[in-house]
Structures are given as C-alpha cells and as structure tokens.
Design goal:
122 residues; mainly alpha
Length: 122
C-alpha cells in the first residue's frame, strides 16, 4: 500500500508537536532547580494561579496531547480518511489557537494533512 501525503503530514506534525512538548518539560525542570527562576517573570497568571511550574506543566501536557492526537490522525487517515482528517484538523486548529507562535509549523502541517484527507475521501 502506498503511503499517502496526509499520513506523512499528520505524523510529522504530531511528532514535531511532541518534540516541542519535550522542550517545554525540559525548560520546566530547569526552573525547578534551586535558584532557577528563569520563567518567574514570563509566565502570566492563569485562572488566578501564578505558579510558573504548574502552568508550564499544563502547557506541556496540552502540547503532548495535541501532538499525539495529530499522530493518531495521521495513522487513522490510512484506513478512515474522514476520522483522520477530523483529528488532524482539531489538533492543528487547537494548537494554533492555544499556543500561537510555538505551534505554527505543526499547525500548518496538521491542517494541510487534514484538508488533504478530507479532499481525498470524497
């Protein structure tokens, strides 16, 4: 069976999203070390909670979930193009809306893979 472009775009976008989340977790762990207040002034207050460690762990967890969702969409697109396209589109749009500049490349890959999956399913 031939590998389709939408599968490659979904898997690569999801993989890049997972790499970004590993980077976020790494930066968060550096912040935990004694005297490591690198993010103390950068992270805003979210829902009245301003602990940078917890906020960055939440952002890292959301990026890993969206990255895995993109990979799943790419894999599912091999058999069911509509489901795979929905997963890739949801992950790409949610990533761009939530993380803007940090998710641009992954979002473009996932959205284009989702659009291609929908177009080839019809």
């Amino acid at each position: 069976m031939r590998t389709k472009v939408e599968t490659i775009l979904g898997i690569s976008g999801g993989f890049l999203g997972s790499v970004i989340s590993v980077f976020i977790f790494y930066v968060t762990l550096i912040n935990v070390w004694p005297g490591g207040m690198a993010m103390g002034y950068v992270v805003p207050e979210i829902f009245g909670y301003s602990d940078s460690f917890v906020i960055m762990l939440g952002i890292g967890t959301m990026t890993i979930v969206l990255g895995l969702m993109g990979i799943a969409g790419g894999v599912v697109a091999k058999t069911n193009r509509k489901k795979g396209g929905k997963l890739m589109l949801a992950a790409g749009v949610a990533g761009i809306l939530l993380f803007s500049w940090m998710w641009i490349i992954q979002g473009i890959l996932l959205i284009s893979g989702g659009i291609l999956a929908f177009r080839s399913s019809e």
